[in-house]
Amino acid sequence: EKFDIVKKWGINTYKCTKQLLSERFGRGSRTVDLELETQIELLRETKRKYESVLHLARALTAHLYSLVQTQHALGDAFADLSQKSPELQEEFGYNAETQKLLCKNGETLLGAVNFFVSSINTLVNKTMEDTLMTVKQYETARWDRELGGLRGAGEVWRQVPDGRIPCRLEYDAYRTDLEELSMGPRDASAVSRLDAAQSQFQSHKDKYEKLRADVAIKLKFLEENKIKVMHKQLLLFHNAISAYFAGNQQQLEQTLKQFNIKLKTPGAEKPSWLEEQ
């Protein structure tokens, strides 16, 4: 049984190597799904751009957190000086109150921005990554998991990670093999080989089309989910930022209620998300 597996693997590797070399030297045809490949490349580019947004949003969170901490410390300093400087008690007092209010609004804004960051992180590193894993299976599907640690031989396969053979390459290799046999003589032996080649080709075709369909479905669902998530998150981000810099405390708090964002209250058993930054 082990010998049969290795033999089958060797034949498969030979056919795929032959197909790959044929494509490289311009003698073999390659199946190309332009629409699907364009969508895949667009997804990769979109993911890179969203990762940049995520990085910047995290930087904004860190800066806002530092600002809130500074305002909190400044407010405490003003309050202390208000008690110890009778001649400037009123001035220090209203500055302390101002910093206290700014600190409260800053914490509310941080709650909104943190929710935005969390949602974008889920979209990029879970939802998009899950779709790209399906794409990877489509592009470099392992031919036979029973081979365990066995790897493809030859310099030509060094570019293929972990001995994986692209599903598309397998499909084209067996398609080419079938086409070549179809153009040959039709004696009893040739007909038998042709039938076997037809069966193998159909098996790889079914595998290739299933993976291609899986990718197409995942891409469609991802696009729908991305639009839904980003519509909500961009509205949240805009409303929260606008309300904060307009000094509209009521609108800022209403934004968090609108999106069901709850801040940890002081004295809660678990540390607030601000403390966890």
Overview of the structural elements:
It comes from Alaudala cheleensis. Residues 194-225 form a coiled coil. Pfam families: Arfaptin. InterPro entries: AH/BAR_dom_sf (IPR027267), AH_dom (IPR010504), Arfaptin_fam (IPR030798). One of its GO terms (molecular function) is phospholipid binding. The chain has a domain at 42-142 and 209-263: Arfaptin homology (AH) domain/BAR domain (Substrate Binding Domain Of Dnak, Chain:A, Domain 2, Up-down Bundle). The protein is built from seven helices and no strands. It is mainly alpha-helical. Helix 5 packs antiparallel against helix 6 (249-258). The two termini are 56 Å apart. The longest helix is centred in the last third of the chain and has 58 residues, at 188-245.
Structure summary:
With 277 residues, the protein is mainly α. It contains seven helices and no strands.
How many H/I helices? 7
- What is the CATH domain class of the domain at 42-142 and 209-263? Mainly Alpha
Q: Quick one: how many beta strands? A: 0
Average pLDDT, rounded to a whole number, is: 81
* Uncertain stretches of 5 or more adjacent residues: 141-163, 266-277
**Coarse structural class:** mainly alpha
Helix content: over 70%
Which CATH-level-2 architecture of the domain at 42-142 and 209-263? Answer: Up-down Bundle
Global morphology: rod-shaped
Sheet-strand content, in percent, reads under 5%
Note the main sheet.
none
Q: Give the topology string: H per helix, E per strand.
A: HHHHHHH
Reported by name, the CATH topology of the domain at 42-142 and 209-263 is: Substrate Binding Domain Of Dnak, Chain:A, Domain 2
Rg calc:
31 Å
| Terminal-residue CA separation | 56 Å
Identify the CATH homologous superfamily of the domain at 42-142 and 209-263: Arfaptin homology (AH) domain/BAR domain
